[in-house]
Design goal:
Layout lengths: L3 E5 L3 H15 L2 E5 L2 H10 L4 E5 L7 H11 L4 E7 L3 H9 L4 E5 L3 H31 L8 H14 L5 E4 L6 H11 L7 E5 L5 H9 L16 H4 L4 E5 L6 H13 L1 E2 L8 E2 L3 E6 L3 H6 L5 H7 L2 E4 L10 H15 L6 E2 L1 H7 L7 H15 L4 E2 L20 H4 L4 H23 L4 H8 L3 H10 L9
Parallel strand pairs: 1-2, 1-3, 3-4, 4-5, 6-11, 6-12, 7-8, 8-11, 13-14
Antiparallel strand pairs: 9-10
Helix pairs in contact: 1-5, 2-3, 6-7, 10-12, 13-15, 17-18, 18-19
């Protein structure tokens, strides 16, 4: 599909010239607008890859139109046209959200070069959003773009199409159930059932009959034949959640299912074939349980043909902002509350927590924040840690404890506190714009990014 370009300029001859030039060079479709007000109406009606906009126009000028576009169409690439020599105006345009500027009268080669770069930038944004949508559709409710999560996505993609047994390991609250669902969704069994079984919540005396079913008269109160969960999952996937908590008897029977692909209902004299893929999870150290004789080694090897280990939240803190925003949006709807946002100061504190309970703990705290906040912003005072009875706050060194630390640790603690306060305030003032923050504090952008990386300061939390 040809690129769609909107050219906005009250000089009609200039606008028509740009239309002819661009359509001939880029095989694109150019729409003309001779005023800012007209451009607003056109933007509301059609979608564009690029907007060229003159700054000086009667009525709504270029800056007003740029502000409107940045607010309503943040992915739209904008190239501003300014009078020759107005470098201060051009810099203001860049600070206001324009991608680039060109001074007129301009050489044809210059305008073509800048439009080419702007279209490439717009194409990259589109492709990035496309990949993000594809990832969201593929990996369901799993959220995160960190290297640790990219590795998880790679492993899911690698194993999903096969029927290999998968063991998902990780701390409580890391999303083992969501990972299992993603494996099923990407598999050839996706049209059949996904049957989850929370093993620790079912007493072992009942778990066997729940998994394998039973015949009438197999035990007291067995008044009729009952199919088990393996039969229910026939053709699909069964997810054995927290399998490290099951006892030796069930382990032995599950080992037979893995080896022979068949089950024997309680009270039955014959086995039955089942076509089921097994995905299991655990937050236990199974190697340690094997050493203690609590877990069968042969069963472990049958389970762990392919292992996916989920990272704890503290090891992928760059994923906290998108996860937190998703959870707030989700639970505002569930709780019939108006849409709320997270205060940048609170987001900064969320990044510093240890999160022993991982995403589940974060989710519980955010629900609390939604319920406690009066307005449309959730602040630090609205949330209390599970193991504390005081509002969430950053762990900053107080004078008494500071002098108990070695010199280097004390220095690092103070630097951490200073940088989070100073750079966090700058980013709040610039709406998360790192370039503007760097310019305001007199640093090169790359130097500021290095400091942010060192002290784990995420610009996204201030946007």
């Amino acid at each position: 599909m040809p690129a769609q370009i909107l050219v906005v300029d009250d000089e009609k001859d200039m606008t028509r010239l740009l239309k002819r030039t661009l359509e001939m060079e880029f095989n694109c479709q150019v729409t003309m607008a001779f005023s800012g007000e007209t451009a607003v109406n056109i933007l509301a009606r059609d979608s564009f890859d690029l907007m060229l906009c003159d700054i000086k126009m009667p009525g709504m000028d270029g800056f007003e139109l740029l502000k409107h576009a940045s607010t309503h169409y943040p992915d739209l690439t904008v190239l501003m046209i300014t009078a020759f020599g107005s470098i201060d105006v051009a810099i203001k345009a860049i600070k206001s959200g324009a991608y680039d500027f060109v001074s007129k009268p301009f050489e044809q080669d210059e305008i073509l070069f800048r439009v080419k770069k702007a279209l490439e930038r717009g194409g990259l944004i589109k492709e990035n959003k496309k990949l993000h949508r594809k990832k969201s559709a593929t990996f369901g409710k799993l959220i995160g773009e960190s290297p640790a999560m990219q590795e998880v996505y790679d492993k899911i993609s690698m194993v999903a199409q096969s029927d290999v047994t998968v063991l998902i390991t990780g701390e409580s609250g890391t999303g083992k159930d969501l990972t299992a669902q993603s494996i099923h969704a990407l598999s050839q069994r996706t049209k059949s059932k996904f049957v989850p079984v929370n093993c620790p919540t079912v007493p072992e005396s009942i778990l066997e009959s729940e998994l394998f079913g039973y015949k009438k008269g197999a035990f007291t109160n067995a008044m009729r034949d009952k199919s088990g969960l393996f039969q229910e999952a026939h053709g699909g996937t069964i997810f054995l959640d927290e399998i490290g908590d099951i006892g030796p008897t069930i382990q032995t029977k599950l080992l037979r299912v893995l080896q022979e692909k068949e089950i024997k209902p309680l009270g039955d004299t014959r086995s039955r074939k089942v076509d089921v893929r097994i995905v299991a999870s655990t937050n236990r150290d199974l190697a340690q349980k094997i050493e203690k004789g609590e877990f069968r080694e042969d069963f472990f090897y049958r389970l762990s043909v392919f292992t996916i280990t989920l990272p704890p939240l503290r090891d992928r803190i760059t994923d906290i902002p998108p996860i937190a925003r998703h959870l707030v949006s989700k639970h505002c709807k569930k709780l019939n509350k108006p849409e709320k946002k997270i205060d940048p100061a609170l987001m900064n504190l969320l990044l510093k927590q240890h999160w022993k309970g991982n995403v589940r703990e974060l989710e519980n705290m955010l629900i609390q924040g939604i319920l406690h906040s009066d307005g449309d912003i959730i602040s630090p005072a609205d949330m209390v840690l599970a193991d504390q009875k005081k509002p969430l706050q950053a762990t900053s060194p107080d004078a008494e404890n500071l002098f108990k630390l070695p010199y280097k640790e004390a220095k690092e603690a103070l630097l951490q506190q200073f940088n989070h306060n100073y750079i966090g305030t700058l980013l709040s003032l610039t709406g998360g714009n790192v370039t503007q923050a760097a310019r305001q504090c007199g640093l090169e952008r790359q130097a500021l990014q290095q400091i942010m990386k060192r002290f784990i300061i995420n610009a996204d939390t201030y946007r």
